[in-house]
TrEMBL record:
<dbReference type="GO" id="GO:0048269">
    <property type="term" value="C:methionine adenosyltransferase complex"/>
</dbReference>
<dbReference type="InterPro" id="IPR036291">
    <property type="entry name" value="NAD(P)-bd_dom_sf"/>
</dbReference>
<dbReference type="GO" id="GO:0006556">
    <property type="term" value="P:S-adenosylmethionine biosynthetic process"/>
</dbReference>
<keyword id="KW-0560">Oxidoreductase</keyword>
<dbReference type="Pfam" id="PF04321">
    <property type="entry name" value="RmlD_sub_bind"/>
</dbReference>
<comment type="function">
    <text>Catalyzes the reduction of dTDP-6-deoxy-L-lyxo-4-hexulose to yield dTDP-L-rhamnose.</text>
</comment>
<feature type="domain" description="RmlD-like substrate binding">
    <location>
        <begin position="3"/>
        <end position="289"/>
    </location>
</feature>
<dbReference type="InterPro" id="IPR029903">
    <property type="entry name" value="RmlD-like-bd"/>
</dbReference>
<comment type="pathway">
    <text>Carbohydrate biosynthesis; dTDP-L-rhamnose biosynthesis.</text>
</comment>
<dbReference type="GO" id="GO:0008831">
    <property type="term" value="F:dTDP-4-dehydrorhamnose reductase activity"/>
</dbReference>
<comment type="similarity">
    <text>Belongs to the dTDP-4-dehydrorhamnose reductase family.</text>
</comment>
<dbReference type="GO" id="GO:0048270">
    <property type="term" value="F:methionine adenosyltransferase regulator activity"/>
</dbReference>
<protein>
    <recommendedName>
        <fullName>dTDP-4-dehydrorhamnose reductase</fullName>
        <ecNumber>1.1.1.133</ecNumber>
    </recommendedName>
</protein>
<dbReference type="InterPro" id="IPR005913">
    <property type="entry name" value="dTDP_dehydrorham_reduct"/>
</dbReference>
<keyword id="KW-0521">NADP</keyword>
Amino acid sequence: MQKIMITGATGLLGRTLYNTLINDFEVIGTGFSRAKAPLHSLDLGNQHAVIDFLEHHKPDALVHAAAERKPDVCEAAPEQTIALNVAASEFLAKQCAQRGIHFIFISTDYVFDGKAPPYLESAQTAPLNLYGRTKQQAEQAVITQSKQHSIIRVPVLYGDVAELAESAVSVIATQISATEKTQHDNWAVRYPTHVEDIAFTLRDLLKHPANLGGIFHISDTQAMSKYQMAYIMANILGYSSTLLEPIDQPSQSAARPHNCALADSRLNNLGITHQRDFKVAIGKILRNVAT
Ligand SMILES: NC(=O)c1ccc[n+]([C@@H]2O[C@H](COP(=O)([O-])OP(=O)(O)OC[C@H]3O[C@@H](n4cnc5c(N)ncnc54)[C@H](OP(=O)(O)O)[C@@H]3O)[C@@H](O)[C@H]2O)c1
């Protein structure tokens, strides 16, 4: 049985990756500050600890999902962001290459500038903010360090959360109100994608390792702004949508791309498609957190 290591297994994506892949593979999950057994705490900034961990566990493949993913946090703490998103990713890729471990790097649609969607896997990257630049630099480092690598670009993610603020999608439910007017970005076009669909896709790829290698795009296809997501959530929660105000210009502090639609042409060719209806899926998540 293949042994798969996952970094960031305490995070939004890594947690669901762990819970999904464990059904088909031997899985070792690592987190950092939130890691509790069976997950291991491994500081990716500690190179000796990383080497010891790889030597001890000897995985066949490593899915690297740990990162700082909030653009505004990245801009506020550039040194820590570069250390985790770029330096630690490069070191891990190099260590994996030396041990014949397939390195699967989770990247983002924010490596694109959002001016010419849809983006094929081969499209030129041109990030607009520090978060996107660190992921672009990490992609380049992975390509340089490792011959056995896969780069997986994903758009904004949602899924089962301990608290709604954990995802840039479900946090919108905390920003709308039953009694007061609230404003929501209606400029950037997003493709909210459920973490379970990313996990199912990676499971399918890992089951046939010959299909791995190079760049993959994984994305749901329902296009919507945060205002449109807020509208759906307001309906689910029984709030009046007349209290929602759309903002039609870019409004956040770190520059965001307009529309980074990811064309998942390689997965289409492989016949791998895992998607779901946003309204149904977010309704289930909001009900789970409320109960
Ligand atoms: N979320 C999105 O909307 C989105 C969109 C596009 C791409 N992505 C990419 O998808 C991947 C997963 O994102 P996510 O949303 O699941 O992230 P997340 O929920 O913010 O989780 C981040 C993970 O990184 C770990 N981590 C932080 N510092 C660490 C360190 N020094 N050493 C080891 N681990 C450390 C955290 O561990 P502790 O919490 O235990 O400290 C946590 O498991 C990332 O590569 C991200 O760039 C995410």
